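Collaborator request, handled under Task 6.
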Amino acid sequence: MELRASNVARLDGGSFDVLVVGGGINGAVAAAVLAGRGLDVAIIDRGDWAGFTSSSSSNLAWGGFKYLENYELNLVRKLSMSRNRLLKAYPSNISQLGFLAALDHGSPFPPWLAALGSSAYWAIGNFQTQRPQVLGPEEIKAEEPVINTDNVRGGIEYFDAYLRDNDSRFVFNFVRQALEAGATAANYVELVSATKSEDRWDVELEDVEFGQKLSLSASAIVNAAGPFVDGLNEKWNNTTEHRIVYSKGIHLVVPQLTENERVLAFFDDTQRLFYVIPMGRRSVIGTTDTRVPTPFTEVTDEDRTFLLEQINARLDLDAPLTPDDIIAERCGVRPLVVKNDGDDREDIDWTTLSRKHEIDLDPDRRIVTIFGGKITDCLNVGEEVALEIEQLGFVLEADRSDWFGEPSDEVRDDFMRQAKRMKLDSLRHKKGVEPLSERLWRRYGRRAFAMLDSIREDPSMGEDILASADYLRAELHHAARHEMVTHLEDFTLRRSKIDLVVRNEKIRAGDGLREVAEILFGDRADAKLAEYLAD
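Structure tokens returned to the collaborator:
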């Protein structure tokens, strides 16, 4: 926790060019691009990095195929181009993935129309993915025997991309990028008040972890609070052109339903798309789309029943899925953008609202507000925030695009050579688990070299620390020093995805949990472990 403590100390009394409020994907990319282009940046979040909406996504980087239905061609083009950039910039973290859509007699589109749409989608994306294909019921059954094709008219397979690790870890990589560019960053720091005086903001903060009062000043503020942007703007009397409405989505994590690494797509009984998404040795079923009045949501019995009924009706399983098969659940809200025109009608069809983003600038109050958005669009958000900040008179360094992306192929090849010489991959013999060398490189990039050194010096660093999860002791020591893990859940749910793929009771009863807490928290291990077990 030393990294967090040193950053909290730098916040207190600091004077910054820009304060970014919110550590989800929008705030993280804003901090990364602004710090990377020479500004003195601070970023805070009252919870953990990606601790809210950005940790409850579908883990997909996709161009928005379904937005073609509403003829949002410009948005689809923009998202597809961003997806292509992410695939190029993060070759180890983001992979191309097939989406097999099975269309039954209740689907809103016949197979021929879906085929036409998939071809248009492929073209809009500059043909950068594999060619889509049309499938008959027999071909679908041959490709995916788990699909019940009794009522299927046909289908298509098109291609998009997904995050090989979890979404919150991807977000944290941008926070790390900002730190390495000189930003000051601290999670579990809440904004208490912000007062504008002449050309500066005087900001009062609280370190939520220790109750310490902090203060800083900033020339401008980026409001990247996700579902909470409207509340902050109201506090600051900041009138904006846009506002947020909420749609709840849930995902259920269950045992692996198909060994094929592709997404299965279906229309549910209400003619809304839902998916079966691969997550290693697990499958993720989701998502729902429910209008809610608040960003604070939870999975209900009705949600579980609906999704399980829908998937059981569309798959040929040895036994129907039941709530007992659910390993973990994710629930979050999508902050959807609408015009702030005083229209509070409840009959707005939020299912037609896309995950586009909008950025509003108040030049007098020097506030940039980011509304909506999604992980796929993150690079666009970062670049547009930089443009708005320039409108406030800041002079940014040239954008060399070094605030995002993985290290070069040469650096990766050097890591792989070292890993091969020390026979790193021979340390792992679990079925269906990727080679250690690939996993360490994907998660840590250049920082993985230090893990090789630690394993050379002490072979126990190459051992799994939790019997029920694939996580090395070396990774724990790295997380303790470099990843601002403040609560045990930060590690088990967001820096890793252990809580998503291993049953809660197995984690808590398994060997190694105490050692995890001791490595992460030192003499505070008992308190942190008790806190985790009490949840």
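The cover message to the collaborator said: "The first strand starts at residue 14 and ends at 21. The chain is about 35% helix and 25% strand. Please let us know whether this matches your experimental observations."
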